[in-house]
Structure formats: structure tokens, C-alpha cells
Amino acid sequence: MRFARLGNVGTEIPVVLDGDVALDLRSVTNDVDGAFLASDGIARTRAALEAGALPVLADAGSLRVGAPIARPSAVYCIGMNYAAHAAESGSEPPTRLVMFMKSPNTVVGPYDDVAIPRGSTKTDWEVELGVVIGRRASYLASPAEAREHVAGYVVANDLSERDWQLAISGGQWSKGKSAPGFCPTGPWFVTADDLDADDVRLTSTVNGEPRQDSRTSDLIFGIDRIVHELSQVLALEPGDLVLTGTPEGVALSGRFPYLAPGDVVELEIDGLGRQRQQVVAAA
User: Fold this and answer.
1) How far, in Å, CA of 229 to CA of 123, rounded?
2) Complete DSSP assignment for 189-248
């Protein structure tokens, strides 16, 4: 199943997509969030679909597309998780999981404008597979248990200000990762049973020119290991978002210019849809 949230910021309407038709989920839930996932919301939605109990949302095509998951309690990110990206960043591939965080309020819609932060000269794009947690995961016994705690997947853009992340970070990457709007997410949340996320293609372009092109099968640390290892050092809660890393082809490589007002960034993952963001100057 594919879930989305349509409407203005803060008043998005939860829907499930049946082909090109958006079905109103408000008889099932107020939102697609952690509480929905923790209370068997996916199963309840499936039952409502089978019963034909969900009405079509009128004028859905005219509504803004919000992030498909409401603001999570946490956004965890895995760094240097593609060997070629580590190399273009001047680093050896990691032997241990590298984790940092983004502020949850960075999560915005897939077509919302990206504002270059004030003082930024090195705003960068990063297409990533996002893992949505469906059940609390703490001290999992093995990676084999991980998928029981995964609700599904999304496209995410892990936008980064590289000077703030690396040069003046004090060692904390999150400083360059948490500017407003720095995590466009969606357009859809696809349930885990509808996507083999271990081997899907992910790409990005800037102004129509190719930048990134890889597959999640090239991840150094796969989905199961990421969820398992994170569960040993923190508790993943329903609705939390885990970004699994980005492949080579970012501006940090030195091969491409950083983002500037007027640029258009597009990102896509097979089965998860396509994002498009216009880059604008800070307000």
C-alpha cells in the first residue's frame, strides 16, 4: 500500500492511494504517524479498503503533497554507507556504523521549496532510502528480527550544509544537517510488503543533469544491520525515520557546484516515487 498526506502544512489529510485515486483515511486515523503505525493502522487500512469503506478525497490533485509520515520523534541518519561516496568524501569506507541525527522539524513535503540557509555557501543534495519504523525496536537479538519492526520506506533528500557539517562542526555532523526544510520526504510511504528495498535504484539530478545513480544493494550496512545496531544503542519508536546513506555524486565530491537559488533538484527511487524541489534564497 501507498500512504500520503495532502494539504497545507499542519493540516494535511491522510490518504491511501489506490492507483491514481486518493482515498480519504480520516475514518480510520487522524494522521499517518507513530500512533497510527503502533495501533495496527496498516492492517486497519487494508480491512477498510477491502470493505470499500474509504471515500474518494475530492480535489486531491489540487492539494499540496506533504511528507507521507507526520513529524517523527527522531530522524536517524547513517553516514558514509556507500563505499564510492566515502571515497569521494576523502574517507575510507567505515568498519562501524556511522550515525548522526537531523532535527525532526526538517521533514517537509517532496515538492516544497528548498531554502539556502543564511550564510551557506555549500548546500548539497543527497538521495536516500528512508526506513519508517513501525514497532518499537530496542535491544533486538539479531538482524533477522529487524524487518518485524519496519513499516515501510520513503524517498528522502538528506540536504547538508558541508561547511557547517565538516569545517566548523566541532565534530558533530548534525550542525550541517538540520536547517529548516533539510529533509524533503515522500511523495509516498510504501509498506514493507510492497517493496524489496534491498535492491532498488536511486537517482538524483540537478537542473536535469545526472548526479547520483546507484542501487541499495551497494549499501555497506544493509537495512537489517542498521536497525539491529541502532536498537543496541537507542530505542527506535513507531514513526521514526532512518535514512540509510547516500551514493556518490554529490557536490562535496568537487565534481559539481553546490546548490544555488534557481536550481531544481529531482530525486527518485524505484517504487517510491519522485521528488522535485526548487532551490530559493533564504527568507
Assistant:
1) 30
2) EEEGGG--GGG-EEEEEETTEEEEEEEGGGBSS-HHHHHHHHHHHS-B-TT-EEE----S
Asked if residues 60 and 22 have their Cβ atoms less than 8 Å apart, the reply is yes
Query: Residue 163 has which C-alpha cell?
Result: 561547511
Q: Which H or E element spans position 84?
A: helix 83-88
> What does the pLDDT read at residue 86?
77
Which residue, among 146, 186, 210, 165, has the nearest Cα to 276 in the 3D structure? 186
DSSP one-letter code for 49? H
CA 5/CA 106 separation, integer angstroms: 16
Q: What CA–CA distance (Å, rounded) separates 263 from 260?
A: 6
- In what helix (H) or strand (E) does residue 130 lie, and over which residues does it extend? strand 127-133
Query: What is d(CA 152, CA 147) in angstroms, rounded to the nearest whole number?
Result: 9
Q: Please provide the size of the chain in residues.
A: 283
Q: Exposed/middle/buried for 94, CB within 10 Å: 0-12, 13-18, 19+?
A: middle
CA distance 53 to 155: 29
Query: Rounded to an integer, what distance in angstroms lies between the CA atom of residue 40 and that of residue 45?
Result: 9
Would the pTM of this model clear 0.90, i.e. be above it?
A: yes
Mean pLDDT across 5-33: 97
> Would you say residue 91 has pLDDT above 80?
no
Contact 208, 215 (CB under 8 A): no
pLDDT in tens, 237-264: 999 999 999 999 999 999 999 999 999 9
Question: d(Cα 78, Cα 97) in Å, to the nearest integer?
Answer: 7
The C-alpha atoms of residue 139 and residue 157 are separated, in whole angstroms, by 29
